[in-house]
Amino acid sequence: MENNLIVKNELWRDLCAIQAELEVPKDRNNAFGGFKYRKCEDILRAVKPLLHAHGIIILLSDEIVQFGEWVFVKATATIQRGDAVISCTAYARHADERKGMDAAQVTGSASSYARKYALSGLFGISDTDDPDDPPQAAPGIAPAPMSQIVRPAAPGPVPGKTVLPGVRTPLPGMPATNQTR
């Protein structure tokens, strides 16, 4: 048991070193949307040499899951050395159809998106200036003071339900997205 703990701690230490060294710039440009981005393949290209240097393998897996009426691709990024394993999971909604894509392409697109976010979570890659973020003020224009921004009230605790600090679920009924074994 103690040996397993040492092996696990070594993997966590090496993951920390990889996270500190890893750089994956957003080198791709979406001319239509006017933003820069990175793809799953960009992250893998940058991280594989670092993992190899530490004797760590990476595995990616997908699963189709349904919550209510919605279908998601659940992607899990896992690193492993021996019996020590660290995983991170992310979800992407699977569209019923997308213009110009057949069914396999729609699934592949959702898979790539979910894998990118699972990898980003595992390797601590920040998505600052993410296209999903609200737009920033133009240069030379001061943003509105925080006191002028109206925010919805945070929901209070649900009676009879325990809330663990740091655990978030994307949608009701979905499992937490970060996990370790």
UniProtKB/TrEMBL annotation:
Q: Which InterPro entries match?
A: ERF_bacteria_virus
Under Pfam families, the record lists: ERF
**What's the domain of life for this entry?**
Bacteria
Q: What residue spans carry the region label Disordered?
A: 128-181
- The identity of this protein, by name, is Recombinase
User: What lineage does the source organism belong to?
Assistant: Bacteria, Pseudomonadati, Lentisphaerota, Lentisphaeria, Victivallales
